[in-house]
Amino acid sequence: MESQPIIVVDKATKIFQSERGPVHALNDFDMVVHTGEFVSLVGPSGCGKSTLLWAMAALWPLSAGSIKINGEEVTGPRREVGMVFQSANLLPWRNLMKNIYFPLEIMGERPRRYQDRIDNLLEMTALTGFEHHYPGELSGGMQQRASIVRALSYDPQVLLMDEPFGALDAFTRDEMNVMLLNIWEAAQKTIVFVTHQIPEAVYLSDRVYVMTPRPGRNLKEYKIDLPRPRPLSITTESRFFEIVGDIKNTIYQGVQKATEEGAYEIEQFAHE
Ligand SMILES: Nc1ncnc2c1ncn2[C@@H]1O[C@H](COP(=O)(O)OP(=O)(O)OP(=O)(O)O)[C@@H](O)[C@H]1O
Ligand SMILES: [Mg+2]
User: Fold this and answer.
1) Is the minimum distance from the CB of 268 to ligand 1 under 6 angstroms?
2) What would the pLDDT profile of 139-175 be if each residue is shown by its tens digit?
3) In this structure, is residue 86 part of a structural domain?
4) Containing domain of residue 37, as a range?
């Protein structure tokens, strides 16, 4: 599956200028993602995961370093990149199908050209039949599935996902993870996924990047050698627990080291 890199993050650094002074969110972060890979970013809350993902989507610029996609430096929004956020952000006055059309309309495309593709995605996400429902008539899981269809409607090569299932209950989250792997395998996308849930990252990913507490740096990279396809039952196997435990320990050690150095307040650490 591995081929040439589609994403190259080189010494990504971000310092926000806020009213309370500068916030050093990300420091010299390196990452290489190959075409078709599923890569996750994990680390303590506030370590710069969203900051990096947003920079990859050109939602804000880096302070230093660079991000290249398909060999070109990211300087503005790119058609080959789709983004899914923690909240589905559907427009309440548009029905599901019209919400899916929205980015296409913004890009000046005729949505009907993409109808077959959209219908296929709706089927894969079990949303067929809900096309005329408004967001208020859909469950949280359905809204989030709709936002995935919206991001994939124009067939981006790369899908960036920032805690897309964070607001869902554990059972729905499992279902979403299975669905996401099905889509990833069928559509052959490259996915960069941010999560607080280490088991989720391990279940989904080919590789997991662990970040230090803020400012986020590279702490460790894990290759997840679990076989594919991955049934949910793999999450009850001892090898799975071993990897999850190993990654959690790495994160704890990173937090401990930063705390000893006085650079970090322990209460910031996320529950997982
Ligand atoms: N627009 C902004 N202005 C100032 N500081 C910001 C801004 N956005 C983020 N930060 C700060 O940058 C740091 C990194 O934030 P970021 O949202 O990237 O963390 P994260 O790893 O995604 O955390 P979480 O897991 O809680 O979502 C935090 O200290 C945050 O307060
Ligand atoms: Mg975040």
Assistant:
1) no
2) 999 999 999 999 999 999 999 999 999 988 999 999 9
3) no
4) 1-80+159-165+194-272
Evaluate whether residue 134 is within a structural domain: no
**CA–CA separation, 26 and 9 (whole Å):** 12
Nearest atom within ligand 1 for CA of residue 44: 25
- Report CA Rg, the chain: 19
- Domain assignment present for residue 218? The answer is yes
- Per-residue pLDDT, 164: 94
Q: Would you say residue 112 has pLDDT above 60?
A: yes
pLDDT in tens, 63-108: 999 999 999 999 998 999 999 998 999 999 999 999 999 999 998 9
User: What is residue 200's three-state secondary structure?
Assistant: helix
CA of 117 to the centre of ligand 2 (A): 30
For residue 46, the domain's CATH number is: 3.40.50.300
Q: How many domains does the chain have?
A: 1
Calculate how far, in angstroms, residue 120's C-alpha sits from the geometric centre of ligand 2: 30
Measure the CA dihedral 222/252/48/173, to 10°: 70
Residue 240 lies in a domain: yes
φ, ψ of residue 195 to 5 degrees: the values are -150, 155
